Amino acid sequence: MTALRQRMLEDMRVRNLSPHTQSSYILQVSLFARHFGRSPEELGPDEIRAWQVHLTDERKLSPASIAVAVSALRFLYKVTLRKAWTFEEVLPAPKPPHKLPVVLSPLEVVRFLGCVDNIKHHAILTTCYAAGLRVSEAVHLKISAIDSRRMVIRVDQGKGRKDRYVMLSSALLETLRSYWPTVHAREWLFPGDLPGQPITRDAVGNACRRAHRLSGLTKPVTPHSLRHAFAVHLLEAGTDVRTIQLLLGHRSLATTAQYLRIATSTVCATASPLDLLPRPIPIEPKPAAPAHF
Asked: Where is the Tyr recombinase domain (predicted)?
């Protein structure tokens, strides 16, 4: 391990970045250095710009993927190497396209979950929908996270390393109680194939794709689609945006408010102002004037 990598790792640890973020940043910096065959300490704005052009034009990465590379290099040069650059100019972040996710209807959720043939996979995908969890949060649920007395689920260290509580629906509790006797796990609610390890995100993704094929749904379905459906269905049922923000664990209310653009049964059911205008009094035709000879 080079001294620069060690220093960057220490900088990330003292700032309490998640292990996933740390490994992702190290990978991005390694790819950058390997592309030029030199240490990042020897590279500057010209090479950074060339790297961003390479990622965009040659590797054709999505704006979200490029944003990860930009964040990694910003951390390296701003925090670890302490460069006094104008980072908005040297390392501009790509503007992501604003696309609305395709959301499953309640009947499509029922149809999809009905095609999940493995009881453990059915339980975890049902949990993703019932509690609006990210798949990374669902796979790391522990048995102790289920509080049937208060009817809540504790999500430990979700995105942004934040804890939160979400609702435990009675229907989900019944599903988990039917599933539980089949595993007898000691720690993880959804144990994986390796002893002492939770189920992997890849295993959940594979189960999702298999159920999608069986369901015959034309809409794309991923574990994250169930989280989107959770938010939109709550919004359409009348739940306020602030409550949904807390349940989803969003940092910004603006992120949650984007679901207003998708909740068609709420937005499109709003009365047009034309319908609210008072009806005009009909104008009666004037009697014809008598003819004069």
From this structure: 99-272
Catalytic pick from 122, 212, 227, 228? 227
Whether 227 is catalytic is yes
Q: Is 134 a catalytic residue?
A: yes
CA 130 to chain centre: 15
The CATH fold assigned to 106-267 is hpI Integrase; Chain A (1.10.443)
Among 159, 201, 210, 219, which one carries the catalytic annotation? 159
CATH 1.10.150.130 in the chain: give the residue spans. 3-90
- Catalytic residue check, 224: yes
CATH second-level architecture of 3-90?
Orthogonal Bundle (1.10)
Check 74, 134, 164, 228 and give the catalytic one: 134
Question: What digits encode the pLDDT tens for the residues 25-50?
Answer: 999 999 999 999 999 999 999 999 99
Q: Give the pLDDT confidence of 224-236 residue by residue, as tens digits.
A: 999 999 998 998 8
Alpha carbons 144 and 121: distance in angstroms, whole number: 20
Element spanning 5, H or E: helix 3-14
Locate CATH 1.10.443.10 in the chain.
Answer: 106-267
Q: Say whether 140 is catalytic.
A: no
Instruction: Let me know if 212 is a catalytic residue.
Output: no
- At 18, is the pLDDT very low, low, confident or very high (cuts 50, 70, 90)? confident
* Predicted pLDDT of residue 293: 41
